[in-house]
Design goal:
The complex is a heterodimer.
Chain A (H helix, E strand, L loop, with lengths): L1 H21 L14 E3 L6 E3 L4 E7 L3 H4 L7 E4 L5 E5 L4 E5 L5 E5 L10 E4 L5 E5 L4 E5 L5 E5 L15 E6 L5 E5 L2 E5 L5 E4 L9 H9 L2 H6 L1 H4 L3 E6 L5 E5 L6 E4 L16 E2 L5 E2 L3 E6 L5 E5 L4 E5 L5 E6 L11 E6 L5 E5 L4 E7 L1 H14 L3 H14 L4 H13 L3 H11 L2 H18 L1 H35 L6 H10 L1 H10 L7 H21 L14 H25 L6 H10 L2 H13 L8 H27 L3 H48 L2
Antiparallel strand pairs in A: 1-2, 3-27, 4-5, 5-6, 6-7, 8-9, 9-10, 10-11, 12-13, 13-14, 14-15, 16-17, 17-18, 19-20, 21-22, 22-23, 23-24, 25-26, 26-27
Chain B lengths: L1 H32 L1 E5 L2 E5 L12 E6 L3 E6 L4 E6 L5 E3 L20 E6 L5 E6 L8 E8 L4 E8 L4 E10 L2 E6 L5 E2 L4 E7 L12 E5 L5 E4 L9 E5 L8 H9 L9 E6 L2 E9 L4 E6 L9 E7 L3 E6 L2 E6 L8 E8 L6 H14 L14 E6 L1 E5 L4 E5 L3 H14 L4 E6 L21 H14 L2 E7 L3 E3 L21 E2 L2 E3 L2 H15 L6 E4 L18 H18 L3 E4 L11 E3 L17 H6 L4 E2 L10 H11 L4 E4 L20 H19 L7 E6 L4 E6 L4 E5 L5 E3 L2 E3 L3 E5 L2
Parallel strand pairs in B: 25-28, 25-37, 28-29, 29-33, 33-34, 34-35, 35-36
Antiparallel strand pairs in B: 1-2, 3-4, 4-5, 5-6, 7-8, 7-14, 9-10, 10-11, 11-12, 11-13, 12-24, 14-21, 15-16, 15-18, 17-20, 18-19, 19-24, 20-21, 22-23, 26-27, 30-32, 31-32, 38-39, 39-40, 40-43, 41-42
Helix pairs in contact in B: 4-5, 6-7
Classes of the chains: A alpha+beta, B alpha+beta.
């Protein structure tokens, strides 16, 4: 018996292995990879790129007079490249010169308590977020005390005395901006509150709506903090804009203009991070730096990564990471960029400052981005060609070259580079032009082909309709049996009669093969869609195709519906049998089987701007299928309309419950297997290892 | 009567105690004679006057040869090696009176430390500071004057453990050895590791000098007086000491390199040493201690590892357990003592090279006046197709032949070609029994390519991966041949398995050469020059050193078959068997402790083995990489494909950024021509000196006296009357 079970297990294992091999996702190769990458906006995949930043030096010690940093929290570089560090653990502000040599340390006569933010103006005056003392301290350039800003008086700031300042900056207008209690606010020179700045947009939330409707005043006040999503850091750049990083789930990178609106494009890509247990979390952006070209660098603390974006939100590079070596960080806390484009990364975990300089490849990327943004497309193209000579796949380079080629009228070549860049919008623009050109060149041929196609489709539909009418007549009057394809025609052209036929044929043997074939065809239609549909309009690329996922998507919802609707209709005086429902539901896929591949073909004739029409057509097919399912439920059980609605809703609920139970059982099985495995390990440990 | 007996016994104990204390104080006063003086700000250990003869009865002169003399202090359990050439005395101990402020002053005189695990796996450290009544060791010494050898038999008290340490002189300096046969464990206690002479050559912060450690190409840790980044750094030789493939992959991704050569060194103004681990390197760790770790001095020393710990998670709890099997073998380290006039890292490299040459490990390359061109032809990868994975053909066999033919038209000298991803599945396949991919032309085209390579006078190396295997591959037993952890679980990661080389390596190599006999003449072997991963399975325990021994056996057999070998990664055990080394690091791992990278590895092997580093087309700055090749003496190296590599964008080989031969042909041709014309004269010469002249300018001197100045800066410079253009180099012939 045991052998038999073993044999079965082996066969199953072999089958799974064979399937694995058949649809193998490829084996990973242990090879040294480039540490830097960009994230593909279309699918979130990482694309390795050549090294973009290298470590110029790591400052581990500031010399005998400067000592070492302890839990440093903020770094600021002024317009003369002098460096200021909030050395929080040592309760002081450290100043380095442009050559990274220690110049001075200011502790406000021992008065600082865990300062977490520092800023220096053009005259060398220093502003310190003295977090522990809950004040902002203004020091003269020689480190002597100038003035102290306390929590301003304002009804908007609440009654408590807390003023948890962490970061700060001074605007050209002389306003002092600071993050206190995680909100970005402005204070004037007279220590008066001038308002909150750039509050995060709060999306719709049902709970919040209910609170607003029904909560008391006190309750509403107590949840204000929850609603206001926090800012982590900010800086005021040379262009006068406030660049901030927020802890919001969206708009984490913000560029706030004079009227407090975030004008940074929202399409930038971020990377998900996982906690120790592998659960996905939102990235935590700790700081932001902007160079003279408007290139934005943000620091993500959980992964220790630095992400760089251009003014349009395109990712230029991702580099850094957690580690114990130069260029890797333990707990990075702050970043700043100097006039040479060197990035200084402050590591609170080690107290070190990593100085990273761009490589030739990165310098060319920045030049390309900057020239393009300034409208010098030809020079930008030269830079992009240099970039491509190092990495043929660098997305922005290909996109940049494509744009330049497009402007020169070389649409075919432009399309090639847009395709390499996976630039859907660019591809759409070029395709529209190409299609327009084609129409112009072959106007009459196109019109004739379109007319003939339309006529052909009308004739075909007419023919099939007549054919289905004939099938129906033959069934009712001549009692001719209706086979597989004929049933499909009925499902499309005479859905009500189709379900009646199913009901009348309930005494016949359940056509297993036909049902399996329909499910297989549905799977093939959906799977082939990934490969046939044009990238301009398709969300998936062939490389994203997953045969198991497509198979599951083609079968699981409908099979669940079959079981759930049978279960509900059984207790709701329904008349249908499980086999009938299964048979009917299988045929409800006919619209998808027929139209999904056709729409995939059509997508090759449409531009990105026509995606609305295209997606509507796809949605229509889905609605058609749902309508068929609804109709089937009604006809097979002979329900009235409202009762049918009720049963349909209950069936959906039953599906949800069914899946909840399945997931629960699955989780329990996993737990059980883990338990058995741990028992096995313990037994192994106790009795066999030693 | 009993009382009298008791009193007598007490009196005896008292007398003995007084005697011992007297001996100890005598020893201390004698130790004070070994004083530390500062000359011109340089710390050196010197006997104040006269010859370093230690007259006290506690001192034994073990022996001497033409250049060195070995003494032993019984009471202090200290060794002294006098370098007669310079008068410098090397010792494990540093005079106590100089460091009285040290809280852990006893560590200044430490001879060794043994980590011992008890039955429950709890580890304690037993240190040998001196041979007094407080010592935790029973010590017995034997001297063999004929061999200039001192043998100490050591028994940590109450452990049931004993072992022998041998200190002896050879013509280059001191050797320290722990013979395997001397290890004895009676009872439950087990030896975990032994650290020997940690204070040998210890230096003060602010001294002029550095520790050299062989991380990647080589790195220096200077004796500066900055706050040290990390107090103690411990690094295993020959790569990460773990079975965790995820950690190995992470190390690769972060460019953490191996200590490929079993050496470390220390350079001071009054002399230096290069320590070479001649036996048991795979089970040895290098320790780099900075001020603040036990004492305020810089130290470089080694630890012989005998046992390791296994870790696993049971019921969400981390379980750490001592692996009972011992990593055996003799452990020997040879300290080559260097004179003050030549004790920098160049001198260390020269000394090590001389040693390898004298042992027959390195053999001089034939005379030539040109620079070989190294090319890797990348053949294929795969990506998801409609149902099956689709082969992405970057270069087929006939295109490869065409490229070789074309290169041979302008590269008149040596052409070294390796062929990657040539079997079914391309780079996603790890061929334990490879067959030429049918989509690339199959066996017949592979044979034609071999012939074309011969016609082009190219040496063609076929990639082979004999260490890792994919889940779905044949050619190995998925239960018996794979490496397992201590708990019996198979070591795997993402469908990737590790093969136990002692079981399968020979078979794979033989099979490959036999089945591919018609076209495979030479092999490029991946992984085995880079990874040493033990098998902890109870019953088939294979230590790291045994893994290395299995590698050596396999490589020996390939060499005997007449096939040429190149290896990826350059762990020293591959050196006697390879004609080339690929992808050698041209830098260090950039640990915080590093004060600079040096081409130590390259200085050792240049002129003896050809090698490559980063491919010119995979770096972010080709001009800079070319200068790096010149400085490190690497062959110009390109990874090429016939097709544009954008077809690989969605494959696992997307890191091939640019490689199309038609795009790169001109640069390949120009580089080959430039190297041949400017560097051909020096290329088969050993590098005897490397030094940094300024932050951007370096010089490299070859054995024939030719010197190359390399200027990485963006400004022209003039050095010693020679003009070196910006981002260029100048070759100055003798």
């Amino acid at each position: 018996m045991k052998k038999k079970i073993n044999g079965i297990c082996k066969n199953i294992t072999a089958l799974i292995s064979a399937l694995f091999l058949l649809f193998s996702m490829g084996l990973p190769v242990l090879a040294s990879e480039s540490p830097d990458y960009v994230i593909d906006a279309s699918n979130g995949a990482k694309t390795p790129i050549p090294t973009t930043y290298v470590v110029k030096r790591v400052i581990t010690d500031l010399g005998k007079t400067g000592g070492s940093l302890s839990d440093p929290q903020d770094i600021f570089i002024d317009n003369k490249d002098r460096i200021y560090i909030a050395d929080s653990g040592n309760n002081r502000i450290v100043k380095l010169n442009a050559s990274f040599e220690f110049e001075a340390a200011y502790d406000n006569n021992g008065g600082f308590s865990s300062p977490k933010g520092v800023f220096a103006d053009d005259t060398g005056d220093i502003f310190v977020a003295d977090t522990g003392n809950q004040v902002i301290v203004h020091l003269n350039s020689d480190g002597t005390l100038s003035e102290v800003f306390k929590k301003p008086e304002s009804d908007l700031l609440g009654d408590d005395d807390s003023f948890n300042v962490t970061k700060l900056g001074l605007s050209p207008q002389g306003y002092l901006y600071t993050i206190s209690s995680r909100q970005l606010m402005a204070i004037d020179a007279h220590n008066e509150f001038k308002g909150y700045v750039g509050t995060n947009e709060v999306g719709f939330d049902l709970t919040r709506l209910l609170i607003r409707l029904f909560a008391s005043k006190q309750q509403k006040e107590s949840i204000i903090d929850v609603e206001m999503e926090p800012y982590n850091n900010f800086l005021i750049a040379d262009d006068g804009m406030i660049y901030a990083v927020a802890a919001a789930n969206s708009s984490q990178i913000q560029k706030i203009n004079a009227v407090g609106r975030n004008i940074y494009p929202g399409g930038y890509v971020t990377e998900t991070v996982t906690d120790e247990d592998g659960n996905y979390e939102s990235p935590s952006f700790a700081d932001i730096a902007v160079d003279k070209n408007g290139i934005i660098t943000v620091l993500e603390q959980k992964k220790g990564m630095l992400y760089q974006y251009d003014r349009e939100g395109n990712m230029l590079t991702a580099f850094g990471g957690i580690g114990n070596k130069k260029g890797k960080f333990v707990l990075p806390s702050s970043i700043a960029v100097n006039s040479e484009g060197e990035l200084l990364v402050l590591d609170a975990g080690t107290g070190y400052i990593h100085v990273m300089e761009p490589t030739y490849f990165m310098r060319e990327i920045i030049a390309g981005v900057t020239l393009y943004a300034d409208g010098d497309y030809e020079k930008a193209c030269e830079k992009w060609e240099n970039v491509v000579s190092v990495d043929v796949n660098y997305p922005l380079a290909n996109s940049g070259i494509a744009k330049a080629l497009y402007k020169l009228g070389k649409t075919d070549e432009a399309m090639k580079y847009y395709s390499l860049a996976k630039d859907r919008a660019g591809m759409g623009t070029v395709f529209s032009d190409q299609r327009y050109g084609f129409f112009q060149r072959h106007f009459f041929s196109v019109v004739i082909i379109l007319a003939l196609s339309a006529a052909g489709i009308i004739l075909l539909i007419g023919f099939l309709k007549k054919r289905s009418d004939k099938i129906l007549r033959q069934y009712y009057y001549e009692h001719k049996p209706v086979g597989g394809i004929k049933m499909a025609l009925l499902a499309v052209f005479h859905p009500i009669d189709f379900f009646d036929v199913v009901k009348r044929e309930r005494s016949q043997k359940f056509p297993v093969l036909r049902v399996v074939c329909l499910y297989l065809l549905s799977f093939l239609a959906n799977y082939s869609y990934v490969f046939i549909a044009n990238f301009r309009l398709s969300a998936k690329e062939p490389t994203d195709a997953n045969v198991f996922l497509e198979l599951a998507m083609a079968t699981v919802p409908l099979l669940s519906w079959t079981v759930a609707s049978f279960a509900v209709s059984s207790i709701m005086n329904g008349e249908s049998k499980l086999s009938e429902i299964a048979y009917a539901v299988a045929y409800c896929q006919v619209p998808s089987i027929v139209f999904t591949p056709l729409l995939a073909l059509v997508s090759n004739l449409l531009s990105t701007s026509e995606s609305g029409i295209y997606q509507s057509l796809r949605g229509f097919v889905v609605v058609w299928m749902i309508a068929l399912l609804f109709l089937g439920l009604k006809r097979l059980n002979d329900y009235g309309f409202w009762k049918n609605v009720l049963v349909a809703v209950l069936s959906l609920l039953a599906m949800a419950i069914m899946w909840a139970i399945i997931v629960l059982v699955f989780a329990l099985i996993i737990q059980l297997l883990n338990f058995i495995e741990s028992v096995r390990q313990e037994i192994n440990l106790k009795f066999f290892i030693n | 009567m009993k009382d009298i007996e008791k009193r007598l016994r007490q009196a005896l104990i008292y007398i003995l105690s007084v005697l011992v204390l007297t001996a100890v104080s005598g020893c201390n006063s004698q130790t004070n004679d070994i004083s530390v003086s500062e000359n011109d700000g340089i710390l050196s250990q010197k006997v104040p006057e006269g010859e370093p003869v230690l007259s006290d009865e506690n001192y034994i002169t073990v022996g001497e040869n033409a250049d060195f003399k070995l003494d032993y202090d019984r009471a202090g359990a200290d060794i002294y090696v006098t370098d007669k050439r310079s008068g410098k005395i090397w010792s494990n101990t540093v005079a106590k009176d100089y460091y009285t402020q040290e809280q852990d002053a006893q560590y200044l005189t430490q001879l060794l430390s043994v980590s011992i695990a008890d039955k429950s796996g709890i580890v304690r450290s037993v240190d040998l500071f001196d041979n007094t009544s407080d010592s935790e060791f029973e010590i017995a010494e034997r001297v063999s004057p004929q061999q200039n050898k001192l043998i100490l038999t050591l028994e940590p008290a109450y452990t049931g453990i004993s072992f022998e340490i041998e200190f002896y002189l050879d013509d280059k300096g001191l050797c320290c050895s722990i013979p395997e046969s001397s290890l004895s464990e009676v009872g439950d206690d087990r030896i975990v590791d032994i650290t020997l002479i940690p204070g040998f050559g210890a230096a003060l912060p602010g001294e002029d000098g550095y520790i050299f450690y062989p991380d990647g190409s080589g790195a220096l840790l200077k004796f500066d007086d900055e706050q040290p980044a990390v107090a103690l750094t411990t690094l295993p030789y020959f790569g990460i000491d773990s079975q965790d493939l995820k950690s190995i992959e992470k190390n690769d991704e972060q460019n953490i390199y191996n200590l490929m050569l079993p050496v470390f060194g220390l350079s001071r103004r009054d002399g230096g040493f290069l320590a070479v681990i001649t036996e048991g390197a795979a089970d040895t760790n290098l320790n780099l201690a900075q001020p603040g770790y036990l004492i305020d001095m810089y130290r470089a020393y080694y630890t012989a590892v005998y046992r390791r710990f296994a870790a696993m998670t049971v019921n969400d709890n981390d379980v750490i357990e001592l692996i009972p099997s011992i990593s055996g073998g003799n452990r020997t380290v040879r300290y080559i003592l260097l004179e003050p006039s030549a004790c920098d890292y160049s001198a260390m490299a020269n000394a090590y090279r001389d040693m390898l040459v004298s042992e027959g490990v390195l053999k001089k390359l034939p005379e030539r006046k040109n620079v070989p061109l190294s090319v890797e032809l990348f053949m294929s990868a795969s990506e998801q197709g409609f149902f099956f994975r689709k082969n992405l053909k970057a270069t087929d066999f006939s295109q490869a032949a065409e490229i070789l033919e074309d290169i041979s038209k302008y590269q008149k000298s040596e052409l070294q070609v390796s062929l990657a991803a040539w079997s079914n599945g391309g780079s996603d396949n790890l061929p334990t029994s490879p067959k030429p991919s049918s989509s690339l032309g199959g066996r017949s085209e592979a044979e034609k390519l071999s012939k074309a390579a011969r016609d082009a006078k190219a040496t063609l190396y076929w990639y082979l991966e004999p260490l890792f295997a994919g889940e779905g591959e044949s050619g190995y037993n998925k239960k018996k041949d794979v490496i397992r952890n201590h708990y019996g679980n198979i070591v795997s990661y993402d469908g990737l398995y590790l093969l136990n080389p002692s079981k399968v390596l020979n078979g794979i190599l033989k099979k490959t050469l036999k089945s591919g006999g018609a076209f495979i003449e030479n092999l490029q072997i991946n992984s085995i020059g880079k990874y040493v991963i033990p098998d902890y399975m109870n019953g088939s325990f294979t230590s790291r050193q045994s893994v290395v021994n299995a590698y050596i056996k396999g490589l020996e057999n390939v060499k005997k078959s007449g096939a040429l070998l190149t290896a990826e990664g350059g762990n020293s055990y591959v050196l006697p068997y390879v004609a080339g080394l690929s992808d050698l690091p041209d830098g260090d791992s950039e640990y915080y402790i590093s004060d600079g990278e040096v081409p130590f590895y390259q200085m050792v092997v240049h002129g003896y083995i050809d090698y490559t580093s980063t491919a010119g087309n995979l770096c972010s700055d080709f001009a800079r990489q070319k200068l790096r090749w010149v400085e490190y003496g690497c062959n110009p190296y390109f990874i090429l494909t016939a097709q544009n590599p954008n077809i690989l964008k969605n494959s696992s080989s997307s890191e091939i950024f640019t490689s199309q031969y038609s795009e790169w042909k001109q640069r390949v041709q120009d580089t080959a021509k430039e190297f041949n014309e400017r560097l051909g004269e020096v290329w088969n010469q050993p590098i005897v000196d490397h030094r940094k002249i300024s932050s951007d300018v370096l010089s490299v001197t070859y054995e024939n006296g030719s010197r190359i100045y390399i200027n990485y800066g963006s400004n022209d410079v003039n050095i010693d009357g020679y003009a070196i253009p910006a981002e260029d180099y100048a070759v100055v012939k003798e």
